[in-house]
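The instructor's notes for this session suggest beginning with a concrete chain rather than abstract definitions. Hand out the sequence below and ask the class to guess, before any prediction is shown, which regions might be ordered.
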Amino acid sequence: MEINPWEYKLLIVDDVMSNVLLLKVLLKNEGFTIITANNGQQGLDAVEQEKPDLILLDVMMPDMSGFDVAQVLKSKPETAEIPIIFLTALNSTADIVKGFQVGGSDFISKPFNKEELIIRITHQVSLVAAKRIILAQTEELRKTIMGRDKLYSVIAHDLRSPMGSIKMVLNMLILNLKSTVIGPEMTEMLVMANRTTEEVFALLDNLLKWTKS
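After discussion, reveal the predicted structure:
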């Protein structure tokens, strides 16, 4: 799907300044909004303050590794859904497996290829965009269903009361007016009207119960 890069904020976390500057230039040229951090703790602080859409996270950093940072982020509900791409010179199976275990979405090996970097980042951002669309449509559907149910409830409630009154009146007429007085045809019409009213009342009653459930 097509995305607008300027709508997405990327966080670069790397302790090597030359890597940070290179990534910043490449990704700014693609139109992304870029924020940076030089170690794990700064990265965590930047996530809390800036709420990035995607994190490019170096693995080998002093004090706090990228894997440690990822574990902290994935342990918090407010940051758990932010995708993480690990940037690392580590390429063993064990390192890659650990990266995915701590919540990484992808790996980019250093030194990285520019085209591959852009494609992988764009792919992750596209997933973020798709998820937002799904969430927005789900919310819209929820509101539509709530509005429909409220409408049904109002209709059922407002019609049920007058229909109940009509039903009572028809029942009284049938009980008090003899067919010998009003004639068999009028009596049959009253019975039919009463039966129809009973059916409509039951329908409204069921509709009201359904909306309340």
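Then share the key points. The longest strand covers residues 9-13. The chain has a mean pLDDT of 88.
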